[in-house]
Amino acid sequence: MSMPLQRGISGVRVSDSSDDLRDSQMKDKTDKEDLARGRSTESHLTLRFPFAFLFSNHSSSKHGGENGFPADPYSARSRHRLMLMFLKISLVLIVVVALAGSFWWTISISTSSRGHVYHNYRRLQEQLVSDLLDIEEISLGPNRWKELEYCNIESENFVPCFNVSENLALGYSNGDEADRFCGPGSKQECLVLPPVKYRVPLRWPTGKDVIWYSNVKITAQEVVSSGSITKRMMMMEDDQISFRSASPMSDEVEDYSHQIAEMIGIKKDNFIEAGVRTILDIGCGYGSFGAHLLSKQILTMCIANYEASGSQVQLTLERGLPAMIGSFISKQLPYPSLSFDMLHCLRCGIDWDQKDGLLLVEIDRVLKPGGYFVWTSPLTNPRNKDHLKRWNFVHDFAESICWKLLSQQDETVVWKKTIKTKCYSSRKPGVGPSVCTKGHDVESPYYRPLQMCIGGTRSRRWVPIEGRTRWPSRFHMNKTELSLYGLHPEVLGEDAENWKITVREYWSLLSPLIFSDHPKRPGDEDPSPPYNMLRNVLDMNAQYGGLNSALLEARKSVWVMNVVPTAGPNHLPMILDRGFVGVLHDWCEPFPTYPRTYDLVHADNLLSLQTSQRRKGCSLLDMFTEIDRLLRPEGWVIIRDTTLLVEKARALVTQLKWEARVIEVESSSDQRLLICQKPLTKRQQSI
């Protein structure tokens, strides 16, 4: 009889032999079935995860040697080696792919993609600037960019800094009240409207001989009472003022020009032969002398005192001829020493014998060595003792400052300035004014008080006009001439090429809007208007005069007022020596001219120059308001500067009611163009 299963405290099992055999057979069968199931599962996992063995748990095998079955075919050491090899291969592949991708990206950036990436970056930068400006505009409130109001009707011909009544109140007298004084109240915060009957000027060259009567401030009596030759050419015809080139008065001007040429010693008005290219015409009448000399390639700058009505400067500019307000009263002219080849005074109304000859000293300062001073006046042919006394003073004083009297005919006298600086030291003691000391001999004064000393004698530019290159080769300048200004020919040559390209770009931008500027084919008749809508051009930051030079070479029918800002490098002496006209000016002050003067105003990097000064009371809005005063209705403004300043200017001109458009110069440049046009807005005629 079998015994029941007993379990002792020691855990030792007691059984008989038959039971042990049966238990062993059952265990054998169970283990075989488990092994079969394990192999089947392992085969299934191996098919789904080929690398599963690399991640298996080494201690989890149920079929080790202790159970009497074969061990796993991959030992622990083999699995470690395979895992390390797999990781190394993966790392190498990743490095190779990364290097190849980086190399390809670098190559693509260095070729075609570079421009696109930079272009997109520029677009993002521009958008950021625009957004910042918009945020600033919003933060400053709705009144920040409010449009400026229009000035009252009394301001139609207003010129700041020439307020006689205000100057008298400030204590100026004895004629000084008519001089230029720019005080705190000289700035305007309103827009000057044209007269009610204002009309866009006729295009060049028709506009040289015919202007609209309503565009200028002059009375019929002032037209009739005009006394000098150049003024008597003017005639009223309905709503026009004409300066007929075929009139007897025109013949009188031509005869007068021939007379001056003969007195100098040249024939047929060939002033170029005598070294004359630029003339400062003092008290120019209405510009007919300069208009006549245009065909002789002579450039004449008209200057005259401020006149509230019947202004010589205003009518001359309206005709499309160079002019600006300039006074021989108490201050030096804003020109460098040794600026002009000839100075001309035809009954100009200036008493040269006054102030002990101080005004003649200023004439001498701006006259080049070997240059001519032409004076036509009744005083030169005295008929009484007073006239004789005054004439003798001028005659003797001119001799004391080393001028040679070339000729005298009727009422016209021609002097020639000395070409030798030794003449001043060879004078007798006490004769004539002394030579300026180094501290007083400023080459480019800006409205400084008149000085009783001979200026310009220390300048490297003391070169006789006969020794200079003749026009038109003069404006190119050779190596020797450029050395006087410390410039290399390569610098001016590169500047000239850049401006040629720039002018072509400007013309292509403006031509579809304002020009019929097609080349004339052989045999074709002259094109009928509209053409040549631009005549008077103001370059607010002329630098070397590159814009003027490029327009000249492109044969555009314009003249350029080259302005050199006092805030920047002074290249005005070189500009004038190239045969152009120009002036020194501080753009924190009003420009000495009448409203509605220029067809085109150009400013290249002027905003950068002005903002770098950080002067109190000198804002960009003040400058743009002044530009609006100078600009003719339907006139154009071209501003070239950095993106930030151009965007700021675009926001400002909305206050002036201008139409404005920003144009990209090139993708690789931080420069932008702002093209603006001033609308023709007239005051409503009162009933």
UniProtKB/TrEMBL annotation:
Q: Where in the cell is it found?
A: Endomembrane system; Membrane
Supply the Gene3D superfamilies for this chain. Vaccinia Virus protein VP39 (3.40.50.150)
User: Which residue windows are transmembrane per the record?
Assistant: 85-105
Annotated spans, Disordered: 1-39
Q: Name one GO biological process term.
A: methylation
Bias (Basic and acidic residues) ranges: 19-39
- Tell me where it mainly resides: membrane
Alphabetical keyword list: Glycoprotein, Membrane, Methyltransferase, Signal-anchor, Transferase, Transmembrane, Transmembrane helix
Q: Which GO terms describe its cellular component?
A: cytoplasm; endomembrane system; membrane
Q: Which GO terms describe its molecular function?
A: methyltransferase activity
Q: Does the keyword Translocase apply?
A: no
Task: State whether keyword Membrane applies.
Answer: yes
Query: Out of the domains of life, which is the source?
Result: Eukaryota
How this chain sits in the membrane, per its record, is: Single-pass type II membrane protein
The enzyme's E.C. designation: 2.1.1.-
Q: Name one Pfam family in it.
A: Methyltransf_29
What family is this? Belongs to the methyltransferase superfamily.
| Protein name listed in UniProt | Methyltransferase
